[in-house]
Design goal:
The protein has 460 residues and is α/β, with parallel strands linked by helices. It folds into 2 domains: 162 residues, FAD/NAD(P)-binding domain, CATH 3.50.50.60; 190 residues, Polyamine Oxidase, Chain A, domain 2 (Alpha-Beta Complex). The chain contains 13 helices and 22 strands. It has a 6-stranded mixed beta sheet. It has a 5-stranded parallel beta sheet with strand order 9-2-1-13-22, covered by helices on one side. A 4-stranded mixed beta sheet has the order 12-11-10-14, with no helix packed on it. α1 links the parallel β1 and β2. α1 packs parallel to α13. Bound molecules: flavin-adenine dinucleotide. The site of flavin-adenine dinucleotide has 43 residues, from α1, β5, β16 and α13.
């Protein structure tokens, strides 16, 4: 996923002491109560949001216990070391907008090496595999301008509709050739569906791009996001493989049951993905209030999947960051990143998002690689070699994620992310990228949501 403008190819203030509330008993199975009068917070999920919340609270003097369902930290940031000489991010890869982005500061503090990539440093190949010539590029730009206009008009309209509905209604009055149609589908896929993870049919024309971005370029972390995650997690007590099944906030504190035991705290922060909340994997007692349930149902969760292919040597333009393909088959292998320019590795990363991304999860690895290679052969010739290895994600079928990130779906409304974030009865709090109105769907959004939830408790 890359952040670029639509249609143009705390220091933590943590002075709050912990001494102001009467100490409630805080018991975790097999543990003693919180020492002294320190209040205890349970944090569900050790992604960037949960870890940021935990860090914020610990710095404010709270006792914290993070409960994480996986056997690792980081959630949807996950650096694979399957290729020891080439650590690869299977979830988030980029710090999007390095200027003013809190993750840039964290990365620097952790001594992480960053490498900028440029979304405009892209080679674009047509459906027949040849690079677009000047006429082709001009036509693509014209269609892009048209698309921008159509979306602008839809956003001024009286009623919300899906991006697809807006585009199809406007396209009825145009004479489009097959080639134009393919370009239009390419643009919808690369600019909207990869960016927001929902399909054009699902994205709200009103709200899909109602987010903000930091300035500056996009940077990869050469050793992966793990560097930030590990540095953030330093000193935070995290219990791994604790799959939370229920959260009881009916009493004066919160009781959380996992597959392994029962934990109690004065407060809890739930930072699991929106997809997990949608699936009802965690039972809340009492049930979550209606407007939070409505937000959970109405906001969307989509897919962006990755397929890394490692080759013996580079056979593509090594100076390119992005290799784009206008596919014959809608939404298939539209976007590729070459890691060669940034890292020197002979590795290509292919993406599939939204409907196509979800569909492909049911394919075998062999089928996915064969399909990727068919596209690459079209672009670079029948003689290119087979990859020496591959790594593939399936975020939709990952029970701890149930999708890649959230989007503003048709039927959702602006305030719903605030409803998702709203604390309940001063004891149950919510974090995670989906609770972030301005920066949803991003790693920095997740981080900022965790800091916000931590502060909500520490200010009490
Ligand atoms: C393929 C992909 C590419 C992306 N690319 C980028 C990018 O380049 N740049 C960017 O800024 N963002 C990107 N993102 C988005 C970014 O990764 C996420 O927005 C962010 O990591 C979400 O963090 P979080 O803490 O909100 O959720 P998560 O990281 O998902 O953390 C939630 C945690 O809760 C745990 N959990 C779930 N259920 C339970 C349970 N029942 N009990 C206990 N624990 C549970 C999970 O295991 C997880 O660790 C990408 C995401 C994906 C999937």
């Amino acid at each position: 996923m890359r952040r670029r403008e639509f249609l143009r190819l705390a220091g933590l203030a943590l002075a709050v002491g912990a001494a102001n509330a009467a100490c409630r008993t805080a018991l975790a199975m097999g543990e003693s109560s919180a020492p002294g009068d320190r209040r205890r917070v349970l944090v569900v999920g050790a992604g960037l949001a949960g870890l940021a919340a935990a860090k914020t609270l610990m710095q404010a003097g709270f006792e914290v216990q993070v409960l994480e369902g996986r056997g690792r930290l980081g959630g949807r940031t996950w650096t694979s070391t399957h290729w020891p000489d080439a650590p690869l991010d299977m979830g988030a890869s980029w710090i999007h907008g390095t200027r003013g982005n809190p993750l840039t500061e964290l990365a620097e503090a952790a001594g992480a090496e960053l490498a900028e990539t440029d979304a405009e440093n892209a080679w674009i190949y047509g459906p027949d595999g040849t690079e677009l010539d000047e006429d082709g590029e001009e036509r693509l730009e014209e269609i892009q301008d048209w698309l921008e206009e159509v979306i602008g008009e839809a956003q001024d309209g009286d009623e919300d509709q899906s991006v697809r509905a807006a585009v199809e209604a406007a396209a009825r009055d145009e004479v489009y050739s097959t080639a134009d149609r393919q370009m239009l589908e390419f643009l919808l896929n690369t600019i909207l569906e990869h960016e927001y993870s929902g399909s054009a049919e699902q994205l709200s024309a009103y709200w899909f791009d109602d987010d903000e971005a930091f300035g500056g370029g996009d940077a990869l972390l050469l050793e992966g996001y793990q560097r930030i995650v590990d540095s953030l997690a330093e000193g935070i007590p995290v219990a791994l493989n604790e799959v939370v099944q229920s959260v009881d906030w009916s009493g004066s504190g919160v009781v959380v049951k996992t597959n392994r035991g029962t934990y109690s705290g004065d407060y809890a922060i739930v930072s699991v993905p929106l997809g997990v909340l949608k699936a009802g994997d965690i039972q809340f007692t009492p049930a979550l209030p209606a407007r939070k349930r409505t937000a959970i149902e109405a906001l969307g969760v989509g897919v962006l999947n990755k397929c890394y292919l490692r080759f013996e040597e580079v056979f593509w333009p090594a100076e390119a960051d992005w290799l784009q393909h206008i596919p014959v088959e809608r939404g298939e292998w539209t976007d590729w990143v070459s890691l060669t320019n940034a890292t020197g590795w002979p590795v290509l990363l292919g993406f599939n998002a939204a409907d196509k991304g979800r569909e492909m999860e049911s394919w075998t690895d062999t089928q996915i690689v064969a399909s990727a290679m068919q596209t690459l052969r079209r672009m670079f010739g029948a003689g290119i070699p087979e990859p020496v290895d591959f790594q593939i994600t399936r975020w939709w079928n990952d029970p701890m994620a149930r999708g890649s990130y959230s989007f503003n779906a048709l039927g959702s409304e602006l305030g719903m992310r605030d409803h998702l974030a709203e604390p309940l009865e001063g004891r149950l709090f919510f974090a995670g990228e989906a609770t972030e109105r301005k920066y949803f769907g991003t790693a920095h959004g997740a981080y900022l949501s965790g800091v916000r939830a931590g502060r909500e408790i520490s200010r009490r």
